[in-house]
Amino acid sequence: MAQIRVTMEVGNDGVAVITISNPPVNALAIPIIAGLKEKFDEATRRSDVKAIVLTGKGGRFSGGFDINVFQKVHETGDLSIMPDVSVDLVVNAMEDCKKPIVAAVEGLALGGGLELAMGCHARIAAPRAQLGLPELSLGVIPGFGGTQRLPRLLGLSKAIEMMLSSKPIMSEEGNKLGLIDAIVPSEELLKVSRRWALDIADRRKPWLRSLHRTDKIGSLSEAREVLRIARQQAKKTAPNLPQHQACLDVIEEGIVHGGYNGVLKEAKVFKDLVLSDTAKGLVHVFLAQRTTSKVPNVTDVGLKPRQTKKVAVIGGGLMGSGIATALLVSNIYVVLKEVNSEFLLKGIKTIEANIRGLASRGKLTKDKAEKALSMLKGVLDYSEFKDVDMVIEAVIENVPLKQKIFSEIEKVCPPHCILASNTSTIDLNLIGEKIKSQDRVIGAHFFSPAHVMPLLEIVRTQKTSPQVILDLMTVGKIIKKVPVVVGNCTGFAVNRTFFPYTQSSHLLVSLGVDVFRIDRVISNFGLPIGPFQLQDLAGYGVALAVSKEYETAFAGRTFNSPLVELLVKKGRNGKNNGKGYYIYEKGSKPKPDPSVLPIIEEFRQLTKTMPGGKPISVTDKEILEMVLFPVVNEACRVLDEGVVVRPSDLDIASVLGMSFPSYRGGIVFWADTVGVDHVYKSLKKWSEMYGGGFFKPSKFLEERAIKGIPLSAAATSSPSSRSKL
Length: 725
Ligand SMILES: C[C@H](O)CC(=O)SCCNC(=O)CCNC(=O)[C@H](O)C(C)(C)COP(=O)(O)OP(=O)(O)OC[C@H]1O[C@@H](n2cnc3c(N)ncnc32)[C@H](O)[C@@H]1OP(=O)(O)O
Description:
This protein has 29 helices and 19 strands.
């Protein structure tokens, strides 16, 4: 608590330096806000203070309002704990202060942090400080006057772009656009800011109140046109997100009725949005994502991560080359091993294409791309493995082959080397069965394309050592993935949880529901594509192989659908040959293919699941729930078996691995939002009506529904006897 404070020091020059201290990002926690109010009042009162500088301790101005307070509001529904910052502090105590205030910004000024800076009379920044209003990414809008001051400082179009995209700009750009008054080296930041504040006090520099400015807004009709276009775009890009339209409404209020009225409307709309399901989901995802880095008995036992400088990747296929790409662009040396020069060359070419692709999309500078490529070495034998810190095996899913590779690498790699497999389904105990160092065996499950998708499932067995887990978590973070540690089972956390997704969709089609309607319902819900388009994209070979795997592992909970086999028989192969459920033509969006309908009819004749031979009648909501509740049901088994450390880890895994909409908080959080009892009763009803083992409620779900306990609540009795962790 001692670290959470606001301090004030008054120098001989008559400048009071007010410093926010709340490591690591100087979040504006409630005591900080109270402290700021107190210090600004004191500085205003004191006769020895001529001017004020506001800054943050430890090289960071402020990461914004304390997001934990949002969580508290969500838990209690009590909005009264939110202090009035917008008028009381930013307008009255700061902007209308009788003494000039200069913000000295270093590191970052985000959300409420930037809003405080905009309430000051000038802003001086260190180079490369991040400036942004990312509130919309948390389901709210800026609430300390940002919707009003940013357009007045930057112009309407740029301000709207920054708020709606939630993306920060650098202080250099801020300086060009007028948000920042000067950029100075870090060491001089305070000195220059003090002088600047005194210059304002002595009228050598202008005393500007952002909220009173109108010079950058343009005429009313111009502003309305910019807002109209932004509204249209937001309707397309963020159809399920109320905060986007709300933000534009609030900006408009300020333009039409003046900045102060805008501030008042902003405060009201902000409070409404804080309690929305969208804000609850997004705040949950923000905090849950950070919690994944806390793994009991791994990150809390004083272990230090070891350095990983060089990694060997075995297999240069799609996954192997994607993994190699991710490592290379993060400055890790890669040895890529293949079985012959033809495959090796292909792997290297794919990596080169990946890296050049990142560079052409502006994600990597040309120099960095060249450097990454120079860190790659292709090999056909193990001679380069003697000094690698980690091996990631990414060959085809074949148990004897993987076992052979693990026996070989155990012999040729140094004793500290981590032995990882990128398998997506095979039991890791089986892979490591034949070797002695089972404590070094671990799963590094990347999602395709591995250099793009953010999730890294780290699969531990009962024998994997905590040091090895910690090291892989650290590498995961270095290569900018979100590592989630999970237990060992078929499909691990993500594929296991989502296996019923395709099963239930196929059952629905067999019951007479239109394929394209199901895809539409799912993408309207917020997943990027529906289950059938996903199947087209992943390829039917994968669908067939995976369904066999699931039939064995999840016997009794699968629907033995002959649909994909029928499609293959009729010469369809999904996106691969341009013919799936959809037609794929270069340069145009996939179009539903009507010629697939007779095949679907044939499928229905084969399965004979339609009650009385007639298609069932269902609403869109029922379709959504019939597809996703079986996923929730499997998630319950995953929680019950202790495959994840905590329920929120499964939320993050579903958001980052399956692109489950983050604004719905992830699969477990969403289930709690719709109600455990409703999920349970619906599944029970469908299991009685249609069979389908995946509908039958799991014991865990049943217990939670009967006792009225949310799925996200920690286990009441420890699952340790079954825990996979
Ligand atoms: C009324 C106002 O308009 C409303 C607001 O201001 S809403 C808040 C707006 N601000 C934001 O959205 C910024 C959120 N934070 C971030 O994007 C990133 O944390 C960051 C860019 C500041 C730093 O990133 P990085 O260095 O990678 O560290 P990261 O792991 O994310 O955060 C470090 C710690 O600070 C915490 N933190 C970061 N921002 C926080 C915030 N605004 N409130 C509370 N905690 C915060 C994180 O939870 C994490 O906690 P942990 O150590 O216990 O896990």
